[in-house]
Specification:
By secondary structure, the chain is an alpha/beta fold. Helices cover 49% and strands 10% of the residues. Helix 6 (122-132) packs antiparallel against helix 7 (135-145). The radius of gyration is 19 Å and the shape is elongated. It comes from Athelia psychrophila.
Length: 184
């Protein structure tokens, strides 16, 4: 990272411990100082290979600071953050980051809250469940998602998923059994 970029970065209020040995920079240039041992014990995706040193390097991540602030809280022995009080868009980004970095505690909380959100956000829950292999959640969300218009689906789905959605929606009258699932 250049000196100019480092000068523009701001330290997280919550994750700023001087004895932390890993520093991450969010997409919006907030620095997070986190303890490597905590990451190793709570996730698969943040553990650097053995023998590497990261104490002087800043690891750049693609997530926004508000998402990383929530995610890193799952690396410490404390009460988890209240995810019911954040906007769904932030929560959905957190759920994706938890899966990406295999932050196990966060993954389970997010899966449970996605299950609670399928009525209000069926497309988002359907995409999340198909990307990350949650068939029970997929089954719940698919029926609700198919009640929305193809125009709304077009706005929300990536092209390949939209084509699968249209194919499934078109075939739905012929396959109305309870256990059918969309496979993307």
């Amino acid at each position: 990272m250049s000196n100019v970029a480092q000068a523009l970065s701001i330290m997280s209020d919550r994750f700023c411990a001087q004895d932390a040995d890993v520093t991450f920079e969010s997409y919006d240039h907030i620095l997070f100082r986190v303890h490597k041992k905590n990451l190793e014990s709570t996730s698969e995706g943040f553990s650097p290979p053995s023998g590497t040193t990261t104490s002087n390097e800043i690891v750049q991540l693609s997530e926004r600071s508000e998402v990383l602030d929530l995610l890193f809280q799952y690396a410490y022995p404390q009460r988890p953050p209240d995810l019911t009080s954040i906007p769904f868009e932030v929560f959905a980004d957190l759920a994706e980051a938890a899966e990406k970095y295999q932050m196990f505690g966060a993954m389970e909380f997010c899966r449970l809250l996605m299950k609670a959100a399928y009525n209000d956000h069926p497309f988002e829950v359907l995409l999340y469940s198909t990307r990350h292999g949650y068939p029970e959640l997929m089954t719940l969300a698919q029926r609700r998602a198919l009640k929305l218009s193809p125009a709304d689906a077009f706005k929300l789905f990536p092209p390949a998923s939209y084509i699968a959605f249209l194919s499934y929606a078109d075939a739905l009258p012929f396959t109305m059994d309870r256990d059918s699932q969309i496979c993307f």
